[in-house]
Specification:
Helix content: over 70%
Number of strands: 0
Distance between the termini: 46 Å
Oligomer: single chain
Radius of gyration: 15 Å
Order of helices and strands: HHH
Low-confidence stretches: none
């Protein structure tokens, strides 16, 4: 793996960690506001899909199937989190 490619890979995953960390912080910050928490989960899901598209674009293997997989995972996790929030 080339140094530039390894650096890009590291930056991509650092960005993902930042997105997830801020999303989780938002859930805690808005713990008494259900609508804000649901909006946070939806935003986190959208950013996850966008991150996946960007990452695979950088890797050179972006395909419709990959976008579909990221979308499906994001939708499933959002669904589970929103159900959990509604029941809490």
């Amino acid at each position: 793996m080339k140094v530039h490619s390894a650096l890009r890979h590291g930056v991509d995953f650092l960005l993902l960690a930042l997105i997830v960390g801020l999303g989780l912080a938002g859930l805690i910050y808005y713990r008494f506001d259900l609508a804000a928490q649901i909006a946070d989960v939806i935003l986190l899901s959208v950013l996850y899909v966008l991150w996946g598209v960007l990452h695979h674009f950088h890797e050179g293997n972006l395909a419709l199937k990959v976008i579909g997989e990221y979308t499906a995972i994001a939708a499933l996790v959002a669904f589970v989190l929103i159900i959990f929030l509604l029941r809490a």
